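Notebook p. 47: complex prediction with 2-acetamido-2-deoxy-beta-D-glucopyranose.
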Amino acid sequence: MNSTVKILLSSSGFSHFCFIFLFLFRNSTALVTDANEVKALNSIFQKWNTQPEPGAWNISGEPCSGTATDANASLDDHNPAIKCDCSLENSSTCHITHLKVFQLEITGEIPEELVALQFLIHLEINQNYFYGPLPAFIGNLSRLEFLRVSRNTLSGPLPKELGKLKQLTYLAIASNNFSGTLPPELGFLDKLEKIFIDSSGVRGEIPSTFANLRNMKIMWAYDCALTGKIPEFIGNWNKLTTLRFGGNSLEGPIPSSFSNLTLLEKLQITDLHNVSSSLDFIKNMKNLTYLSLRNALINGSIPSYIGKYKSLQTLDLSFNNLSGQIPSALFSIDPLTQLFLGNNSLSGGLPQQKGVKLQTIDFSYNYLSGSFPKWVTNDVTLNLVGNNFTFDSSNISDFYGLNCLQRYFPCNRNTPRYSHIAINSGGKKFRDYEADDRDIGETSFVVLNSEKWAISNVGFLFTEGGQAFNTLAQNSGTKVINSKTTPPDLYQTSRKSIGSLRYYGLGLENGPYNVSLFFAEIVYEDQDSRKWGSLGRRVFDIYIQGTRRWKDFDISKEAGGVRRAIRKSFNANVTENHLEIHLFWAGKGTCCIPGDGSYGPLISALSVTPGKLCDFFES
Ligand SMILES: *[C@@H]1O[C@H](CO)[C@@H](O)[C@H](O)[C@H]1NC(C)=O
Ligand SMILES: *[C@@H]1O[C@H](CO)[C@@H](O)[C@H](O)[C@H]1NC(C)=O
Ligand SMILES: *[C@@H]1O[C@H](CO)[C@@H](O)[C@H](O)[C@H]1NC(C)=O
Ligand SMILES: *[C@@H]1O[C@H](CO)[C@@H](O)[C@H](O)[C@H]1NC(C)=O
Ligand SMILES: *[C@@H]1O[C@H](CO)[C@@H](O)[C@H](O)[C@H]1NC(C)=O
Ligand SMILES: *[C@@H]1O[C@H](CO)[C@@H](O)[C@H](O)[C@H]1NC(C)=O
Ligand SMILES: *[C@@H]1O[C@H](CO)[C@@H](O)[C@H](O)[C@H]1NC(C)=O
Ligand SMILES: *[C@@H]1O[C@H](CO)[C@@H](O)[C@H](O)[C@H]1NC(C)=O
Ligand SMILES: *[C@@H]1O[C@H](CO)[C@@H](O)[C@H](O)[C@H]1NC(C)=O
Ligand SMILES: *[C@@H]1O[C@H](CO)[C@@H](O)[C@H](O)[C@H]1NC(C)=O
Ligand SMILES: *[C@@H]1O[C@H](CO)[C@@H](O)[C@H](O)[C@H]1NC(C)=O
Ligand SMILES: *[C@@H]1O[C@H](CO)[C@@H](O)[C@H](O)[C@H]1NC(C)=O
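Predicted complex, structure tokens below:
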């Protein structure tokens, strides 16, 4: 017995009270859902083995009922959810206009019955485990305005029929397993305002037809293996507020036409090759809140007008060729001015720098030099490692050890004291593996008091304020499988980064070394679990002494699955008393499966021993 109280009105007009139930019957002119659509919908949900939630709609009776026809109910009130419109063709037939199944672990191909839902304007099936193609018949749903199939494992090429969806304003195909290039026909979708193709599997050049997409506001296209030059025509998309290009194989320079994009609020262009750009093109981007031009061959100096960008919260210019000094006017309110004004009447301490929004600044790995402006203090989240700053009595800094982490590694130079390093990344001291369990998220680097080794972490999330993520990870799943001689305990913890993670050996004896890196994927779910959460792909590069030794390293691919140990050993030469092991996220892999900031370098332990690599240990 259904315990829900139902109110039904009879067609003859009188109310009938029956036990504890009230019944309501539709009269003869009642609204009915298009019969073809009912049939299709029921068949689809049967295939998906999914039921509507109570109150959403009636799967065996009239789908256009309950919240489906309640104009005030949102699509978000239920999951799965449909919405209907009963005023489209004539006043007695309802049509299904919205369909959402979100994160319900539905698996299967996209069913052809969908075509019967001719009135769909909104289709959302993201975060499931749909496989097979995005079928050509999707192009028959000509009323679609919103299409989101992200975070599944759809494969094959994108159908050119997508170009028939002339009403489309929103297209999300991100985090799938597609192949091939972007169909030029997508350029016909001139109402398109938002497109998300990150980690979708598509590759190749951005079609020239995209020049028509003048209504574009948001484009996410990172981790796509896009090639060729960044198209000049994007500079004409003058409604653009967000652009994300990273982890592709795009070539610089950043076109000068980009200086037209004055409404941009979030701009991320990273991992460019071949041709340098200066920062001139950002001159008029006064609305910027997030700017990341990391690893993008930016040269020249940092313009001080950035200090006038009142909304800017995150500024990441790391891994470039910037030179010159840090501008003293980068902060729009110079703390010194406040100090000065404060002299007269203020009591109870100095005013805080509250007017300033710029929260995170990353200038690491450039060629910046000279001394620091007055605003450079511990109060600002700021990363300055890997530059060429002056450290002397004229430039006393708040940052212990920063002097050691400059391009010329001055600490313990010519007075080497060490020849072995062993570190249990992210964990406590274990046998002769030293502890490395301090969260360095905020401080971004740590030099041990012995100045023997150091870590630096760089990386902010693509969000307002550029949230830094915890750099420690613990295995909460099953124990790591480890067939080699390393103790499994080493793999229960890891250090992780959403950008770049470096270990430095300082004051090492010069000579040949064997560097062993121990990895196990302890963050992702098992890949065969048929859940969208298992579709994460972690990809980073391994550099030793500045030379890339492994491009696109994928721990679980190398180890044959998640929670399996893998050791990689490399020869390295120390010639200037320092060693640098660098795990670098070059924008590849999925970003946010299973959660935000899941991606990037991850390492369980490392050991550095003098002498040549013993092949016996190679994994
Ligand atoms: C759905 O509708 C059918 C036919 O109108 C009715 O018999 C059934 O009780 C309804 N089911 C629910 C759960 O409301
Ligand atoms: C929707 O909500 C508004 C304001 O609460 C109300 O006036 C209106 O009647 C509601 N419409 C429907 C169809 O329930
Ligand atoms: C309303 O439209 C439906 C579907 O097109 C059709 O089957 C039905 O006969 C129409 N009803 C009226 C009253 O025109
Ligand atoms: C889609 O439309 C095309 C052209 O109108 C038609 O040939 C095809 O049969 C349709 N596909 C489906 C699955 O209805
Ligand atoms: C992705 O597609 C390739 C073939 O293009 C296939 O080998 C691979 O197994 C697919 N991956 C997933 C997770 O389905
Ligand atoms: C955009 O930039 C290009 C190249 O810098 C320029 O020729 C063009 O006139 C600009 N368009 C607008 C609308 O400002
Ligand atoms: C680099 O850019 C130059 C100048 O635009 C071009 O001639 C050359 O082909 C590019 N090289 C590569 C490897 O892409
Ligand atoms: C963006 O810039 C425009 C024009 O310069 C301005 O009117 C608008 O308020 C700005 N928006 C934000 C969010 O700052
Ligand atoms: C930046 O790089 C470009 C291309 O290599 C070069 O022409 C230009 O002189 C460089 N600018 C600076 C300031 O080094
Ligand atoms: C970056 O600057 C360094 C040092 O000045 C120089 O060796 C290197 O060639 C530059 N790289 C590019 C791409 O301009
Ligand atoms: C660092 O700066 C010094 C001068 O202060 C200069 O001699 C040296 O070449 C610079 N090193 C690098 C790597 O740019
Ligand atoms: C280390 O130096 C030796 C001798 O100069 C050289 O043969 C070897 O290739 C170097 N190894 C690396 C990894 O650079």
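Notes: Helices lie at 35-47, 335-342, 555-559. The CA atoms of residues 40 and 607 lie 60 Å apart.
Next step: compare against the earlier run before touching the bench.
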